[in-house]
Amino acid sequence: MGLRRATAADRGDLAALERACFGPDAWAGDAIDGALARAGGLGWLVGAPAGPVAYLLAAVLFEDAELLRVGVAPGERGRGHGDLLLQAFAAEAEARGATRLLLEVRADNTRAHALYARHGWEMEGRRRRYYADGCDALLFARRAAP
C-alpha cells in the first residue's frame, strides 16, 4: 500500500471513494475540488494495486489544522489505512506550524472515535442535530507534538 499526495487530477478517484464511504452523504466533486484548492488545503490517498482505497482531506491555516474528510473503502477498513492517513496529516500539520488539530465526526461513528482516540484526539464538544438525519456531531481536538 502506498501513501501519496492527492491532487485535483485525483477528483474522480476521490469522488468514487467518497460515494463508497458515505453514500447519500457523500460530498460532490466540486466540494472535493474546493477542499484541495482552498488556502492550506491538502490531501492524501492510500493506493492498492486496483486503485485508491482510502483518502484524507484537510486544511492547515496558521495554528489550526482541520481534518475535513477521511474515508476508507468498506472492504479495506481495519487494515491500518486510517492510522497511516492520520499520521501523515499530523506530521504535515506540525511541519506547517499548526499547534492544534481539529475534526468533527458523527456521534454514532464509534469506530472512528476509537481511531481518533488511539492517535491522541479527545472529544471537546458536541453540535446537536448537526447532520441531516438528526445525528449529533462530536468535536475532537489534539495538540500537536512538541
Which key phrases capture this entry?
146 residues, alpha+beta, Aminopeptidase, seven-stranded mixed beta sheet, 7 strands, 36% strand
Q: Can you walk me through this structure?
A:
By secondary structure, the chain is an alpha+beta fold. It has a single domain, classed as Gcn5-related N-acetyltransferase (GNAT) (Aminopeptidase, 3-Layer(aba) Sandwich). The protein is built from four helices and seven strands; from the N terminus they run E-H-H-E-E-E-H-E-H-E-E. It has helices at 11-22, 29-37, 81-95, 110-118, and strands at 2-5, 41-48, 51-61, 64-72, 100-106, 122-127, 137-143. Strands 1-2-3-4-5-7-6 form a seven-stranded mixed beta sheet, with helices on both faces. The radius of gyration is 14 Å and the shape is globular. The termini are far apart. The model has no long low-confidence stretch (mean pLDDT 94).
Number of strands: 7
DSSP strand content? 35-45%
Task: Please report the first level of CATH classification, the CATH class.
Answer: Alpha Beta
> The CATH topology is what?
Aminopeptidase
The CATH architecture assignment turns out to be: 3-Layer(aba) Sandwich
Radius of gyration: 14 Å
Question: If strands are numbered along the chain, what order do they take across the biggest sheet?
Answer: 1-2-3-4-5-7-6
- Tally of discrete structural domains: 1
DSSP helical segment count: 4
